Amino acid sequence: MDTKDSSTLDQLSDEELTIKLDPGLLPKHVAIIMDGNGRWAELRSLPRIAGHREGIKSVREIITVCLELGIHALTIYAFSQENWNRPVQEISSLMGLLEYYLSTERTKLIEQGVRVRTIGRLDSLPTSARQWVQATEQETAHLDRLHLTLALSYGGRTEIVDAVRELLHEVQDGKLQPDDVDESRIQQYLYTHELPDPDLLIRTSGESRISNFLLWQLAYTELYFTPTLWPDFRRRELLLALLEYQRRERRFGRVLSAISS
Ligand code: FPP
């Protein structure tokens, strides 16, 4: 977005930003790396967990806006495999927050028509967090308005390793020939096999990295990096990201005339 455009947008209200969106050009699937909770808390001399707690409010608001706009899928990086290296106290607070979120939000998510899925190595989660996750997945399995995927104990490389392992077992059992393996076959073995690839990836907090998130699925995804810290990423920030997305030309490696013809 050039400076002139962004300064014009700065003067618009949330309602005016919403009107500027082209409903026909919205991403079907938005993925988010929610970063900056710790810094948000440190800036206020609060413990890091206060940033994660405030981050949950952003999760709630972003889900609401996705529902209002008719965005079909939202995938959020809630806990990476690398996050297991954090201090034990922070890990346990994050697991507690996950349980708190699912227990307090489940009824509302069901009313809103949100189907909750998780991706990642769930067997690493503490038993009670895993039980909350599985119960929520089961209770929302019939819903279809918004597909919310929580990446938990997730790593993109591990996801590919798990897919390759499963494929090799199928080959070993004679159910699959090596020549049957192509991109669509690999896609069927990924954790996200039921979802389309993300159209838009948002990362907050000024870092411009993918950090082992959805490595296969992001091949043609539009990337949007913002300095805003996750607890401050609310409705307006999402609208600005969507407007920027709508300004991009998605060519998927082709030339534009070949796409329109
Ligand atoms: C990154 O911020 C954020 C996380 C590791 C966890 C994200 C978790 C939440 C938003 C709350 C839980 C979510 C759900 C859905 C229950 P950081 O701590 O790395 O921030 P920093 O880079 O500023 O230290």
Q: Reading side by side through the largest sheet, how are the strands ordered?
A: 3-4-2-1-5-6
Q: Into how many domains do the coordinates divide?
A: 1
Radius of gyration: 19 Å
Looking at the overall shape, the CATH architecture is 3-Layer(aba) Sandwich
Shape: globular
By helix and strand content, what is the structural category?
alpha/beta
Molecules bound to protein = farnesyl diphosphate
**According to CATH, what is the topology?**
Undecaprenyl pyrophosphate synthetase
Question: How many β-strand stretches?
Answer: 6
CATH evolutionary superfamily: Decaprenyl diphosphate synthase-like
For the terminal residues, how far apart are their CA atoms?
27 Å
The major β-sheet equals:
6 strands, parallel
- Number of DSSP helices? 10
| Average pLDDT figure | 95
Order of helices and strands: HHEHHEHEHEHHEEHH
Helix content: 40-55%
Low-confidence stretches: none
CATH C-level name: Alpha Beta
Estimated share of beta-strand residues:
5-15%
Q: What this model shows, in words?
A:
With 261 residues, the chain is an alpha/beta fold. It has one domain (23-156, 197-247): Decaprenyl diphosphate synthase-like (Undecaprenyl pyrophosphate synthetase, 3-Layer(aba) Sandwich). The chain is 48% helix and 14% strand. It is built from 10 helices and 6 strands; from the N terminus they run ααβααβαβαβααββαα. It has a 6-stranded parallel beta sheet with strand order 3-4-2-1-5-6, sandwiched between helices. α6 (127-139) links the parallel β3 (114-119) and β4 (146-154). α4 (48-69) packs parallel to α5 (88-112). The longest helix is centred in the middle third of the chain and has 25 residues, at 88-112. It is globular, with a radius of gyration of 19 Å. The structure holds farnesyl diphosphate. The site of farnesyl diphosphate has 18 residues, from α3, α4 and α5.
